[in-house]
Structure formats: C-alpha cells, structure tokens
Model the fold of this input.
Amino acid sequence: MIRVLLMLVLLWNSSLIAAEQWPVWLGDDLKPQQNSHWQIKTTAQGVEFMPLESAPKILMIVSRQAKSYDIALKKLLEIYARELPQAHILVRKLPSQPGADNVAALMNMLADAENKVDLIYSIGSTATVAMRKSYTGGKIPVVSVNAKDPVLLGLIDNIHGSGDNFAFTSLNLPASVTLRYMQRFKPSLKQIGVLYAKNNQSAYATQYLPLKKIAEKNGVKIIDIVVDRDDPSLALDVSMDRAIKTLKEGDPTLSSSILWLTGSSSLLARMKEINLYAGSLAVISAVPDVVRNRADSALMSFGVSFVNNANQAGLYGLQILKGKIAPGDLPVGQIFPPDIAINVAQAQRINQKIPFVLMEMASDVYGNNGSVIRVNGKSMQEQ
Done:
C-alpha cells in the first residue's frame, strides 16, 4: 500500500513538473487532469502521453501551433485511451529549420523513431506534405489527420489508396458539393468572396482553385480575398474592404453574394474581425468548428469537422495497428454527408433567412444569447 501511494505521489509530482515545461505550441487544455488516463513527460523535443503500462508506441507530428491541431490531438487521445489504453503516445512538433536543414531534422526524427514506433500521425497539411516527401515507402505506417485532400495536394493519384505505407484522410468536400450547398443556402447566388491566407498553399490548392473552377463554370463569380499579415496591402481589413467594393459592383445590395472562409488556420482564429468587416454579408465557413455559440462565429458551415476527421484517422490507425488492413489499401477517408453547423444569432444579426432544409440537416445549431439548440444531431431536450 505504501509503495502504491509513493508511486502515485511521484507520478503526480512529475506531472506538475512537466506542466511547468509545457511547450507553447500546444494548448493548455491538452494537459492531463488529475484523474486522466494519461501521464505526461516533457522534453526539449515534445510531449509524451503515457499510461501505466504501454504497448504500441505512436508518434504524432504536429505541423505547428494551431487550435485545430489541439482539437485533433485531443480526439485522438480520447480514442486511444478508450480503444487501446496501453498505447504510448509521443507528440513532436515538425522541425522548422530553414531549407535543407529542415528535411535533415525530420529525417533524423524519423530515423530515431524507426525502431521504436509502430505508427505515425501527420497532423496538418504541412506535416503531411513533408512526411510524404521524406518517408514514402518507409517501414512505419503513416496516417494523415487534419490535412487537406491528398489528391489535390498532389500526394497520391486517386482516392482509392496510396499503395504504400501511407493512409490519408481529408478535410475537404468536393467543390461541386460545396457549391451545391451554397446555392441551397442562397438560391440567387451570383458572387462568392473567398477568404484565404497567402501562405496557406493547401487551402489555395485544394479549396480556392477547385471552387473557382466549378463556380465560374456555373456562372458564379469568384472574388479572391487574399490575406497576409506581413504585407500591409493584404491586411485583413484592407483586403476585405477592397473585395466588398468589388462585390458591390456586380451586386449593389449584396443580396446575391456571400463570403466563404477556407480552412486557413490563421484566419479561422479571426472570426470576430471577419464578421466586423463583412458587415451584412453572410460568412460561410469550410470548417464546422468555426460555428459556435459565441459572437466570434461564422453564420454557417458545411464541411468536415476537425473532430470527425480525427475520429476517422483514429479508426484508421486502430485498424492498422491491429493488423486488419495495410495502410496503402485504405481509401482516402472522406466524411459525407457533410457536417453542417448553423448560428441562428448570426443570421438574425444580418437579417438573413436560413432555408428550412438546411436547418433540418444541421448537426449543430446555436440560437440567441449563446443557447445551444442541437449538438451532434440531437436536440438539447434529447441530451
């Protein structure tokens, strides 16, 4: 009994020490609580989530600091705590040295992991692209999570599978589906202002360009709204003001126009500003997680939530670890029908009606004054 108590004290103390060294690129809500399944150990390289007895080791490589990656990590930790509680989780940040040094640092990380790790998750498009370039055909299976469409990123040829050590999931809806839902929301749609960060090449390649192609083919005009924090001429307020003036040239009342926010992480965190500059325009997001019961919410989203994408990646990882399927035989994980989220208060703020069919289909609906009407497809009365 004394030995058990001593072990608990030591573990708790080590968690406290580790908490003081928590890396700035991970959110504080990922820190295990006192009753958590996980113990943590921090090093200069990252964080390890460890159960009392570990079996398979899983390396999770995070692109950079982002709330979306925290959400994905949290979901993956929940899945493994429930389904494979012996798993030993190592979380590392993608090396960020310049040029060739960056590739060398990643290769060193992978070489060190090769005889220690059973599975790797690449979290974010940047990490997924880097891993694909550096580790195709490697010994360890790799599963992508919170990353854009691998076909549109040029990582594989088709959605049927890689044929090698990679299994992919996707945050993207097909552009034709996205446009169809936009037209359900606003049948008179003539123009779409598309917001994306200049440095987010994955959002540009997999969201902006495909939508532009299909929209213009269907007679809908696309106005690009490019944002770059380092360029004053592309600051959010400047780019938004310029785009809205352009939209008004083709639609003076803006009654047939909307704004679409791509999955650019740096912009998803700026919803309050985007709503301010958007004025009476409806802001539709490609990311359901940006619709919430707060003022800094998009009006609506149809897409793939970070949670559902991570859940699919978690299931893929479990299948691979249990030997049920080879990673290269898994098709690109896609969510359909899309996750739909609606903030009624945002619609009322700009006097925008929401079609009943979309209200029926929505899995998450938020009302006035922060009220929650429906979550995960169930009304609050059913909870």
Remarks:
- Residues 175-303 form a domain with the Rossmann fold fold (CATH 3.40.50.2300).
